[in-house]
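Task card 7
Instruction: Convert sequence to structure tokens.
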Amino acid sequence: METKEFQAESKELLNLMINSIYSNKEIFLRELISNASDAIDKYKYLELTSEGKIPSKNYEIWIEKDKENRTLTIKDNGIGMSKEDIINNLGTIAHSGSKDFVSKIKEAKEKNDLDIIGQFGVGFYSAFMVADEVEVYTKTLNDKGYVFKSNGETNYTIDECDIEDTGTKIVLHLRKDTEDEKFDNFLEDYEIESLVKKYSDFVRYPIKFNEIEKSPKKDADGKEIENEYDEKVVTKTLNSMIPLWKKNKKDVTEEDLNKFYKDNFSDYEDPLLSLNLNLEGVVSFNSLVFIPSHAPYDLYSQNYEKGLKLYIKGIFIKEKAKELVPDYLKFIKGLVDTNDLSLNISREMLQDDPRLRKMSDSIEKKVVGALKDLKNNDFDKYLKFYKLYGDHLMYGIYSSYGYKKDLLGELLVFKSLNSEKDIDLKTYKDQMKEGQKVIYYASGKSIESIKMLPEIEKFRKDGINVLFLTNDIDEFALSMMGEYEKISFKNISEHDKEELNEDEKSKLEVLEAENKELLDNMKESLTGKVDEVILSNKLVESPVCISTKNGLSLNMERTLNEGPQGEQAKASKVLEINPNHEIFKTLNKIKADKELVNKYSSVLYNEAMLLEGFDVENKSEFIKNLNDIVIASLKK
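Output:
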């Protein structure tokens, strides 16, 4: 017999587990039955692909109780485990990113957010919530039998044992009842039947249970004898065994889908959206797809794996078939079951199989179609979705270089200057002012920062709506779209004289010619910071703003330079000056004082950059220039 220590993180998580990180301890039975079903799946897969070398079985899961010894047993005749499997699967909890796993659970416990732990799904170790000792007897193909024993504290033992058939038997020694918790309830027939029906009704293999049936004992004359009973053992199958995705769609309720999702994807909330898909065609398949009502805790981590569970002919093949899900929909959960793929298909063949791509395309279209229906029929619920996953739709447009703009453009929604509620592109188009030729947008870190942009003043005054883009990906996505229903997008910070009518152009050209020396001196003083200094018709009350040329905005510049690639992008900046502002009139008066003009230029540039959401690079120089300007004005 060998004694081994749990890993440090495993011990810490076990301690959290035993001290009730789950708000609902009854889920232990669901987790152990789920593991048993997976083990049978694995054996059945090997059997079906072994060309008769591995014997077939009557696949079953058994639950047994022993009230006298206070034990509950769950056993299966699946694949079983080797000694190495026991160490890797039972001796280590959450071995992938285990420290992060433990810290997130502790954080949730400290916030008293106990229900959230459901999304961490720790399987076998849920047994320690109800048991103070667990024994696991197991045997895999062509190997010895082994027994694992642990009290869930610091260590565990592994020893050889005699087992005839492959499979696993887990014996739980239930904890003693306390004032608050009744562990003995898990030994009652009605409780066991109720929990299986509640959590595991759709498991594909029979979950069997021996129940004692009592009938009144009768005397020789056929009369019932008071308080005496005949007993017989009756074997019951506790589950329906019909996978939910194989049932007729009209027989599957929203409640069924919600329950299935929570039970099978370790979530504590109903999904935001559930899809029950039965598709026939070049490739036929059944699928259940769910959109979580909160983003998975690790969605943005490098370790996150997208994909749907893949079943072939009802046999589990792969936990995360990433080939079934485009990157921009990586947040969806679910499964696919098809008869059109070979059971022994390899991982490499999966990646190259055109049938899988057709399945992926069908699922993508169905998900997008369901989102469009949700947007049209329940806009408030759609906004909840968009707040969680809207940036993924933008990524879908951007990463496809605009190819998916027709598919996804209708799903985009925005905050805007003239609308209290979020609006989509169709609504914006329908509300465009007469003569308006483009869809205007402004980008920034927040709604508040966008509203402070000087150039937005004219749009507010003229009653022209402006879409607000606050996610880093938004502007890149719109640049890839190029247009919506033949109407181009335009950043309000983009320098473009083409929008001016001939009269406006003429007036500006005259003004710029009259002030050429001043503008040239300002441009020279801002060498390396701006490419041009011009007079503007964009501004109403503000003295200056920064615009950009050549399609790269300041927000895009910042995003690229802050990204993991460490790019050194540089937008072409133009300092635009309001010719009707008192500051411009002051500049005209002091234009002979080149040094003072330089100070004004620097201060105005920094003011414009601050309003764009950027910090002043040289704060001491900024303060000195500001003070010098104030002193110069006082002297006059």
